[in-house]
Amino acid sequence: MRILLATDGSRAADQARDLVAAMPWREGGRVRIVTVAPTRRDLPGVPWTVDVQPDADRVEDDTLRVHRDALETAEREIRSARSDLKIEPILVRGRAASAIVDEARAMPADLVVVGHRGHGPWESMLLGSVSSEVVDHAPCPVLVARDERLGPVIFADDGSPSARLAESVLTRWPLFTGLPITVLTVAQHGFPYAASLAPMAYPGVMEQVTETAEELERLAREENTAAAGRLRAAGFDATDFLREGDPAHQIVAVARERRAGLIVVGSRGQTGLRRLVLGSVARNVLLHAPCSVLVVREPVAPAVDASIHELEAELVSAGL
Description:
- The protein is α/β, with parallel strands linked by helices.
- The chain contains ten helices and ten strands.
């Protein structure tokens, strides 16, 4: 496998590093460790008129030293745990999320691993802005790490094409060998609000809603059982588990109950806007998960993704 690990020296990045070091690897594994230092004009505390600022060189040197130290530490820790890996440390300058995505595409990476948040004023957020943007735009699956464990695994299966892609990742990659997997499908129940006004006016509405809910639950149960069966046939210790309610809430709740090390979820986004690239379920799971989350994103052509970046830049410039 070819893995791109992003580091900035933060505690979350150290957790991502330790997770990569603990992964089961096959011969020929390759890790590219990248740290992204801001350009001179983007350095905190350095104004645009850097040429007349006597402290500009010192600020830049200090910043670069922090990133080099993070890079050297990550390389040393991974190499001490796995001497058989090919490790490539790289320091680049630029905008962090964009540079990480570009490096993943150039590698090309099978997987990007990032911490769930990094340094900076937003460090207290549940999901850092860099991690969130990398998940949205990476050309491959992204693992947002919260600790060094990979299992037990919760596989959130909703029957979508993205879920099938996530299932193929589970069966093809060596990372999950020997880990117990809970295949979780959430049947969404609940009486539609609009229909709640109609029973007196439209005879049979209640019966139709009930029949529809029962049919959806039946289909969810069949999908859940089938997915777990396929994983067992592939040699995994897989169990099927059906819940009812809000999908994101139930996925997070089951992960807590079962002390999961990883949630695997597909992304079903259909638009290019950043806030909609991920489906709402995947986004909410990323925000609230108590463990690491692997988001398996359906491939997006580089030209399309570049257009997405351009559209986002225009929206930001317009204040939207």
